[in-house]
Amino acid sequence: MTVTIEKPNRKNPTRYTRAPHKRSNREKFAWLFMRGSGVLLVVLIFGHLYFNLLTGEGIHQIDWGFVAGKLSSPFWQVWDVLMLWLALLHGANGMRTVVNDYVERQGVAKGLRIAIFATAGVLIILGTWVVFGFDPCSYPDAGSFAEICRA
């Protein structure tokens, strides 16, 4: 019994425009970044959940004053910004991989990649601005910070 496999019916075969002698390690570094950032994100996220939900009064302690207290500490600012940056870059790189795998038209793929990384860049800038620019004394009802802000 002989089995023949028919040639795939594909109208637009993928064309590789890169010359075969040019080698780039971009995909290797993207792959390594995904693994490294994934491991670091697990540590950062579970640390975030532990210190916010399992210490003190648990979820009942989270209010404006709790968040203001955390965002006034340089340690938690760096922790939150690192978590924000890694999560956005990890997600954007994952979406880039999906676009590379499933979008056949090069122009559409390039436009989607630009949109993905532009969105991630804007969110990184806004998130970093919020974390480092937060001033609990600039709010009229500063809660537990009212005594500190008046001094």
From TrEMBL:
A Gene Ontology term for the protein's cellular component: membrane
Transmembrane segments: 29-51, 71-91, 112-132
Database matches in CDD domains: SQR_TypeA_SdhD_like (cd03500)
Main location: membrane
Ranges of compositional bias, category Basic residues: 10-21
Recorded coiled-coil stretches: none
Pfam families xrefs: Sdh_cyt (PF01127)
Any one GO molecular function term: metal ion binding
Protein localization: Membrane
Keywords in alphabetical order: Heme, Iron, Membrane, Metal-binding, Transmembrane, Transmembrane helix
Superkingdom: Bacteria
Region (Disordered): 1-21
Protein name from the UniProt record: Succinate dehydrogenase hydrophobic membrane anchor subunit
